[in-house]
Amino acid sequence: MSYKIEYRDICLKFGKRNILENVNICAKEGELTGIVGPNGCGKSSLIKTTFGFYEYNKGDIFIDGVSHKKYSNKELSQKIGYVAQENNVVFNFTVYDIVSMGNKDIKAVYNALDELKISHLVKEPIQNLSGGERKMVFIARALAQNSDIIILDEPTNHLDINHQLFILDYLKKSGKTILMVIHDLRLATKYCDSIYVIKDGKNFCFGKPEQALSKENVYNVFGINGEVLNIDKYGLDFMI
């Protein structure tokens, strides 16, 4: 089995507080892998260790079988496109400026904008855009990098349902290795090839959507009655 990115036994502490304890997550090449769990369970913290925003205390992260510590920042950016949960911009860069931070090649910038159908915003100052439009711009920046791996933290934040489905459809069909933190269990069920469930900073379970989001698992992790059902021609859906 070919894994593009692996988190092995990741431990993270803030002071004396354990944020992550021996967390293991692997994203298979060409698949869309989801990470779900309650607020504050460590999902976003795990993602941030990839890029050095947080320094883990134990474990390692492997990209194409090589420790991420052996890659330079430039090499890491070529390997992985990243979209944070929130993208705050202090300076009023244009959309073109933002996307070109992922790739200086003009063709790559416009291709990414065209793919996401936001080329009409190219000259707009980022501060003038809605939260949803900004999210699309930063996803375009990740696409412009032409990386084989894209990591997204809550990619559907600020997007209306039409754009949520558009983005996830696009990512699903992209052929890239996608690892995403997502809170919407219905969307996770519909789009993820496999799902890791995190609880209290630890691996709780892993499997295909119908396995990871079984009725028992959902209740034990989220405290709600819900499960994945197979709705005939519509495929899998998460129902409460």
Overall strand count: 12
Report mean pLDDT, rounded to a whole number. Answer: 94
- Contiguous helical run count: 9
Overall geometric form: globular
If you had to describe this structure to a student in words, what would you say it looks like?
- This protein has 240 residues and is of the alpha/beta class.
- The protein is built from nine helices and twelve strands.
- The chain has helices spanning 43-49, 73-79, 95-100, 106-115, 131-144, 161-173, 185-191, 209-212, 215-222; strands spanning 3-14, 17-28, 32-36, 58-63, 66-67, 80-83, 149-153, 177-181, 194-199, 202-207, 227-230, 236-239.
- The strands form three sheets. It has a six-stranded mixed sheet with strand order 6-7-8-3-9-10, sandwiched between helices. The protein has a four-stranded antiparallel sheet with strand order 2-1-4-5, with no helix packed on it. Strands 11-12 form a two-stranded antiparallel sheet.
- Helix 4 crosses helix 5.
